[in-house]
User: Fold these one by one.
Assistant:
Number 1:
Amino acid sequence: MYIALSGEMPLPAQTKKQKKPTTHLRRKPPQAHRTTSPVIRCVIFDLDDTLYDCLRQRVPVAHRHAAQAMVEAGLNADAEAVYRARMRAFRRDPMLRYIDAEVTRHFGAENPEAISNAAREAYFNCSVGELKLFPESLPLLRFLAKRGVRNFIVSFGEPRIQRAKVKSLGLDREPSIEKIYYADRGNVLTKEAAFRKIRRKTRLKSEEILVVGDRPAREIRAGRELGMHTVRLLHGEFKAQKPMGLEEEADYVIRNIADVRELPWIWGAPQK
């Protein structure tokens, strides 16, 4: 729940620096309130814009790659001009639903479908360079693992590229992560299916599992539909995306991945 503050601006002598809240509790119906703190024995993390800054490290590079592919596929324009048009369209459509159609229309493409297909393939298959985790990601993963919490990652995209990202970030050899699943664009494995696999593998109840991600329509929705706890990191490509109903609203919204450990849960309590 977001609260807007209004009122007169205080005089300079009265101004006090206030600490910006990092978490926001989603309003729930009275029957959903718990009398005790939930025990979390498993955390499922998204990858992009959750454990590292995909928006700054990957998105501009991928759009340049897609812009060049559009030109090579026959779009009559300069690659730099196409890139700028893509970034303008991206700000309006971070989910990439209409971006290619909008750009081809803008430049009057003669074969928009072929050019759009080339752009989409280039975007999702852009080669991976050096990537860096958020500074707080590894400390959080290791904090949880020390308390017996089982950590998993479920990433969405082109599996070959997502694996390259994981390798670049060093997560493929990180002992605090039990396993990484790759959901794909062809829906051979969806995020919800991956969550179900993890639940079966761990033999835990849904209420003992937490999902952390940035996309309301993907991991947050999937986690909620399975009865798991959910936390949304308000950052990156989908920061401005609004939940489309209660099924996409996370239990908590945070601004820094480190804030997960401050939420009112019990981490990895021994089973009774």
Number 2:
Amino acid sequence: MSIKDRYTSGSGSQESPRWGAIVRDGIILLAALIILPKMWPFYSVPTGSRGVVTQFGKIVGIEQEGLAVLPPWQNLTLFSIRAEEANIDNASGSTSDTQPVSVSLTVRYSISPDKVSEVYEKYSHNGDLSSYVQTATHEIFKAVTAKYSAPDLIAERAKVSTDIYAALGSKLAVYGAQVINIDMRNFSFQESYMRAINSKVEQEQLRLAAENKLRTVEAEQKQKVAIAQAEADAVKATADGNAYANLKIATAQAEALRVQNSALAQSKEVLELRRIEVEQTKADRWNGQLPQNVYAGAPIPFLNASK
């Protein structure tokens, strides 16, 4: 039977549609379109997801990434284990010295793959735990900042971030999540306290500048003293050297005189020899002229008879 004969009756100009057949087949096609997807056994679990398999509302398994084949009476729900992000604006707390402090944070987290079933059953059907993360972050920030004074909170910001990361990691583990990282922004105190901090910083910078200048002056003075001391030591060393040399010369001269005196005292011939040497020296130096005045006891030079 052709399609035309199936849905029409009569012949020629007397043809009329068979509404009963049309309605029946339409109902069958609609039912097939509705039922076929429900009966389709093949599913795809994309990368970064897990497939939660339920049967009549009960979790019966977790499918990994890739192809999943399920019977018609089971359902597959995709559950993301990719990194998610929760923004916490103006989280507030108080330091140990009662200074109010606020900060904005971005927390990146993901669901632990082995906790998918627990998270799906208790907290979220798609892996979004942002509301839990925000609540936990506010609580942790208050607890951590209460351990620090305001100056320490500023000076040890990296350690504060590490403490928040560790405490939040333990907190979110209860919800089956793991912290990837934390970014802190807009870390601030009350305006009056910030003004006081800025003033203190300026005073500290001035103090350090004055200390540096003082150290420079002290270093210059020490350098001058060292140079003067070195010059004085050099002068003293020169004077000591000269005095020592003079002492040695005087000692040598005294020793020579002592030896000569000793020799003269022991031998009259040596004394006579010295006298002769002296007279010989005078004779060698005489120019041949007699003295104009002869005094009593003065020696007369030798006369040259050939002249």
